[in-house]
Amino acid sequence: MQKDHHIVPGADSSQRNPSRPARPMGIAPASLAERLVEASAYLHHQADARDIARYVSILAHQLIPAADGVTISVRVHGVGGYAVLGVYGYPHFPGTMIIDADSEMAQRVQQEFWLRTPDEIMQLFTVDDDDNGRRFLATESMGIRHNSVLGMPMRIRRQNDEDDVVGAVWLGNWTLHNPFTANDHTRLRLLTQIAALAFDDAEYATIYQSDGQSVRRWMRELPYDAETRHADRGDKNGVKRVDDDSSESNDLDFAVEVPEFSERELSVLRLIGAGMTAREIAERLYISVNTVRTHRTNLLNKLGVHSSTAAVARARELGVLS
């Protein structure tokens, strides 16, 4: 695998071929700073890294609509490596994927890259397999063929002036007329800077076992001997699903009450999830901007959150939005 990839502006193929659909712009530049400030305020002091990852995965797609798929890998001390805590656009699995700290894939999590050719992408998702030589992971079995992949580590500058990688955001594109651009790269860098601070401040991560049950794992090494047990590490590739029977799991098996929404509230919520502004939603639904804002306020209150992005993340978590 090539470790150093030069970051160069990606041409928008829709400009070369006018017959192709226009590229979706995502959050407008004028609103970008406001949305990032909102995200930073919401993520500040969130205890569960999974909540942060869910929020960031949705925000990544809203910032960069060319990202058909988003995966967020986060370093979790309690699992001995990186846990894939945020996923958008890819199939979901019952258990959390874990990447061992000493594995080949963990080294790739720490690299920045922008892959544009099938060979480069194949190398990214291929790992050593003792039984079968090189093995292709993840994507083709899902019926997905990437056109490009953009990866960005989440880095924290420590007091010794060394960068510490706390995770990574990977974006996958499989829509031919929407390649990544230099602007997408810039937006991803801004997002990872905010996300890195939030993950570094998180206390624990909710990890799902292969049977769908949840456990909590500490984000950092504790100052006393309280190591939590985790999955068997027999897979040298470092990619596996959690299967943990630890008695220290702190299972989260309480019932969650789903609020009731009117049809109009659900319509507004879906359009918010699509990244539309209040004015755009008003034009789409033939209602006033003030009415949209009223519905948004009601949605935030019912979902118990303080921002539109958090509302979308919570609604997806509850199954209100697919």
- Helix share of residues? 25-40%
Total domains: 2
Output the radius of gyration: 20 Å
The topology string of helices and strands comes to: HHHEEEHEHEEEEHEEEHHHH
SS element count, helices: 10
Biggest sheet overview: 7 strands, antiparallel
Our estimate of the beta-strand percent is: 15-25%
Shape: globular
Q: Termini separation (Å)?
A: 36 Å
Strand order of the largest sheet: 4-7-8-1-2-3-11
CATH class of the largest domain: Alpha Beta
CATH architecture label name of the largest domain: 2-Layer Sandwich
Give me the CATH fold name of the largest domain.
Beta-Lactamase
Helix/strand structural class: alpha+beta
Domain HTH luxR-type: 254-319
Organism: Bifidobacterium callimiconis
Keywords: DNA-binding, Transcription, Transcription regulation
Region (Disordered): 1-25, 229-249
Describe the model.
With 322 residues, the chain is of the alpha+beta class. The protein folds into two domains: 13-241, Beta-Lactamase; 263-318, Orthogonal Bundle (Arc Repressor Mutant, subunit A). The protein is built from ten helices and eleven strands. The protein has helices spanning 13-16, 29-43, 49-63, 104-109, 118-124, 182-201, 263-273, 278-285, 289-303, 308-318, and strands at 69-76, 81-88, 97-100, 113-115, 126-129, 133-136, 148-157, 163-173, 204-208, 214-218, 239-241. It has a seven-stranded antiparallel β-sheet with strand order 4-7-8-1-2-3-11. A hairpin with a 5-residue loop joins strand 7 and strand 8. The longest helix has 20 residues, at 182-201. It is globular, with a radius of gyration of 20 Å. Residues 229-244 have a biased composition (Basic and acidic residues).
